[in-house]
Design a protein that fits this description.
The structure holds 2 protein chains of 2 kinds. Chain A is about 55% helix and about 5% strand. Chain A is α+β, with helices and mostly antiparallel strands. Chain B is an alpha+beta fold. Chain B has 9 helices and 4 strands, in the order E-H-E-H-E-E-H-H-H-H-H-H-H. Chain B has a 4-stranded mixed β-sheet, covered by helices on one side. Chain B is globular. The chains are: A alpha+beta, B alpha+beta. The interface of A and B includes residues 63, 90, 97, 101 and 154 of A.
Chain lengths: ~220, ~220
């Protein structure tokens, strides 16, 4: 069986989202870089994989996919049985629903509050040479605190977001939170002891450590 | 079996997303209003259903859920039959394509279309004037997206392939409101998209939800 291919830079958050799932199920894969500087993401070859010209894209034989969460779910569904890992819980109505709920929360609530801090403090200064917009950072941190209030309440009742089992919902938080921990605002999590403990459990996973190694905090 | 409950205003786009799924599977349900003007969404009773104080929330027996796409998935999974299989979770490739285009709806289509809905409908309701510059910017984004949708829908009847799925249905609520704005003519340049929209609109489940929407 040929290794599956993930197209995009290994340090990209959304590429990492897919890679951590591939690691969790022990699948063989190849990362194929896409050179944004050279506009490779807008080349006909890449647009054939992802018509929106974004990364990641993914190939497994004849199957070509895009959107990192959709790709990650495909990977988890395909390899779960052979890996003895069940991060989606699609066999159990209640558990699957809880995984879906907290996956949506990451996408629509957690990420919109946290990612502007990552962009303003790390990405824009490094990639565009622009200074940090402190107003955006302050506003985002205020939103993030309200979100973390809810996470703290949830994680003081359960070890993981969907319940007392690790799931896709938790892993989705890894890439952007990893970079957040490289901003000057990492200590925000200190005020939320259960959230902090949950993050440390995630960060200690072999899959997360392995993928983090390709995501330097200084760039 | 007690009817499931959907908490939120019946005219809300995200509530409608769930309702169309309930109609597709023929489940019995009740819509329980949440009065935003009275601050009901921030009170303990509602926060117990949705800790972020948003709608919809959903109750199925002991199970409490929130996030409309998660609720929709649960409904479609629970009530799935041979005939009504809108997630395709038994099939690796089909389910992946449903997920791809549902994520496109959530992360690309919705962020482009919702500012237009917000500016055109909600701002005047609060006594303000729509921000035409923002609307124009959103329309530019919409057109780029519709280019991609046109290419896709000229190859396949529906977004995930030749079968209707949650990916298609998820587009219904915001697009329905968009079609009543002056910007609807943008869709005229996209014949396959227009045909796809018309086929969604002709679905009995969609017609039923529309008939239940409060008049503007």
């Amino acid at each position: 069986m040929a290794p599956v291919k993930v197209f995009g830079p290994a340090m990209s958050t959304n590429v990492a989202r897919v890679l951590v799932c591939l690691e969790e199920v022990g699948a063989e894969y190849e990362v194929v870089n896409i050179d944004f500087q050279a506009m490779e993401h807008k080349s006909p070859e890449h647009l054939a994989r992802n018509p929106f010209g974004q990364i990641p894209a993914f190939q497994d034989g004849d199957i070509v996919l895009f959107e990192s969460r959709a790709i990650a779910k495909y990977v988890l569904r395909k390899y779960s049985k052979s890996a003895g890992v069940d991060l989606l819980r699609e066999g159990d109505l209640k558990e699957a629903a809880m995984v879906d709920v907290w996956t949506e929360v990451e996408a629509h609530t957690y990420n919109p509050a946290l990612s502007p801090v990552v962009y303003e403090c790390l990405i824009y200064p490094a990639m565009r040479g622009v200074p940090t917009n402190q107003k955006v950072v302050e506003e985002s941190l205020e939103k993030l605190k309200k979100v973390l209030d809810v996470y703290e309440a949830r994680l003081s009742k359960h070890d993981y977001l969907a319940g007392d089992f690790l799931s896709f919902a938790d892993l989705n938080h890894f890439p952007y939170t990893h970079y957040f921990m490289g901003t000057p605002h990492a200590s925000l999590f200190d005020a939320y002891p259960h959230v902090k403990a949950w993050w440390e459990r995630l960060a200690a996973r072999p899959s997360v450590k392995k993928i983090s190694a390709n995501m330097p905090l200084k760039f | 079996m007690a009817p499931v409950k959907v908490f939120g205003p019946a005219m809300s786009t995200n509530v409608a997303r769930v309702l169309v799924c309930l109609e597709e599977v023929g489940a019995e349900y009740e819509v329980v209003d949440v009065d935003f003007d009275a601050g009901e969404h921030k009170r303990p009773e509602h926060l117990a259903r949705n800790p972020f104080g948003q709608t919809p929330a959903f109750q199925d027996g002991q199970l409490m859920l929130f996030e409309s796409r998660a609720i929709s998935r649960h409904v479609l999974r629970k009530y799935k039959t041979e005939e009504v299989n809108l997630l395709r979770e038994g099939n690796l490739q089909e389910s992946a394509l449903v997920d791809v285009w549902l994520d496109v709806e959530a992360h690309q289509y919705n962020p482009a279309i919702s500012p237009i809905i917000y500016q055109h409908y909600l701002i005047p309701m609060r006594g303000g004037t729509p921000d035409q510059k923002l609307i124009s910017k959103s329309m530019e984004k919409m057109k780029k997206l519709l280019d991609v949708y046109e290419a896709r829908l000229s190859k396949f009847k529906y977004l995930a392939g030749d079968f209707v799925s949650l990916a298609d249905l998820s587009h219904f609520p915001y697009t329905y409101y968009f079609m009543a704005t002056p910007y609807v003519s943008a869709f005229d340049s996209y014949p396959s998209v227009k045909a796809w929209w018309e086929s969604l609109m002709s679905r009995p489940a969609v017609q039923k939800v529309i008939s239940q929407l409060p008049k503007q």
